[in-house]
Amino acid sequence: MSIRFDGRTAVVTGAGAGLGRSHALLLASRGAKVVVNDPGKSRTPGKEALFAADEVVEQIRAAGGQAVSNHDSIAEVEGAQRLIDQAVAEFGGVHILINNAGILRDKTFGKMDMADWDLVLKVHLSGTAYCTRAAWPIMQKQGYGRVVFTTSNAGLYGGFGQGNYGAAKMGMLGLMNVLKQEAGRYGIAVNTIAPVAATNMTEGILPAEIAPHFKPEHVSAAVAVLCSEGFTQSGTICSAAAGHYALVQVMCSEGVQFDPAAPPTPEDLLDLWDEIGDMSGARGFPNAAAETVAIVEAIAQRSQD
Questions:
Q1: According to the model, what pLDDT value does residue 204 have?
Q2: How does residue 202 score in pLDDT terms, banded at 50, 70 and 90?
Q3: Taking the mean position of all CA atoms in its chain, how far away is CA 284?
Q4: Residue 261 has what pLDDT?
Q5: CB atoms near residue 245 (< 10 Å)
Q6: Apex 259 CA angle, 254 and 261, nearest 5
Q7: Domains of the chain (ranges, CATH numbers)
Q8: End-to-end Cα, the chain, rounded Å
Q9: Taking a C-beta distance cutoff of 8 angstroms, is the pair 218, 197 a contact?
Q10: φ, ψ of residue 204 in degrees (nearest 5)
Q11: How far apart are alpha carbons 51 and 40 in whole angstroms?
């Protein structure tokens, strides 16, 4: 089945370069009208005075697509609202929102300035929330929407010196898990991409000998799936890097059920810690209530035993 975005308007944040640029170009090539957001200036030699977003728009138009640029910072509520308002004014709606914008301010936690903590969380986590909140009532009214968050393996598994970045990236998953509960009846799907790609932001992080394999286009292919009309799942975390794709899920061990009427001692827990942490029977839960149901079932099973 061919994936097309004809008649859809897509907003891509941080789309002046790297992953965002790749996402914008792919969606535009498949029929989407794209709002290219990026407050940054061009890194093209001789064009440093131009906005990077304008260059991407020129490229889309030259290929026969439709696009406009936006230079607002999504780290501010007002900037995020102007971005979404522009999409509605230019193209009549917002059907796809790809929250991609991000920055790095890496430093070990003991040396980290809290101003850098605040800034990174504001761009990644709050910026994602601001843009999504601005687009949400539009998607609700039109009965359709595709929202993509951008997490990171630094959040999923930890990255040295990236406390601010990792916290922001995991925070997005908490927001996604709530929104997937609220979005379904409106025809909105909220999912997350977990990319690794060679971009300006990751320059010097990936070893030079393998960096050419980590093309942003590998990630954009998965993003296009998450944005497509036929993909109706919500709450998916897709890992995408260098042609490798996998799904990530928060998992819970089967655990040990003690007598709920008699709280165990710390020593009781420590004695069975390995069994508590045995992941051989691990499972995921579609929502918070499902875990509670599983605990109630474990209590009932213990009483039967």
A1: 65
A2: low
A3: 19
A4: 92
A5: 14
A6: 135
A7: 9-248 (3.40.50.720), 266-304 (no CATH)
A8: 51
A9: yes
A10: 90, -10
A11: 6
The pair of structure tokens assigned to 192 is 């997350």
Looking at residue 2, its amino acid is S
Q: Is 293 left (phi over 0), alpha (psi -120 to 50) or beta?
A: alpha
Most distant pair of Cα atoms in the chain: their distance? 76
238 contacts: CB under 8 Å, gap ≥ 6:
191, 192, 193, 194, 222, 225, 226, 245, 246, 247, 248
Residue 228 is given by DSSP the state: S
Residue 213 makes CB contacts below 8 A (sequence gap 6+) with 242, 243
User: Which tokens is 272 given?
Assistant: 């069975």
- How many other C-beta atoms are found inside a 10 Å radius of the C-beta of residue 1? 5
* DSSP structure class, residue 76: S
Reported as a pLDDT band with limits 50, 70 and 90, residue 295 is: confident
pLDDT at 305: 67
**Residues known to be catalytic:** 165
Q: Which amino acid is residue 96, in one-letter code?
A: I
Q: Average pLDDT, whole number, for the chain?
A: 94
The whole-number pLDDT of residue 271 equals 98
Helix runs in the chain, H state only: 18-29, 52-62, 77-91, 114-121, 127-142, 153-156, 163-183, 216-227, 266-271, 273-276, 288-304
Summarised one tens digit per residue, pLDDT across range 116-161 is: 999 999 999 999 999 999 999 999 999 999 999 999 999 999 999 9
Residues 236 and 250: beta-carbon distance below 8 Å: no
- The single-letter code of the amino acid at 252 is C
Calpha distance 106→213 (Å, rounded): 24
With tokens 């799907």, the residue in question is 189
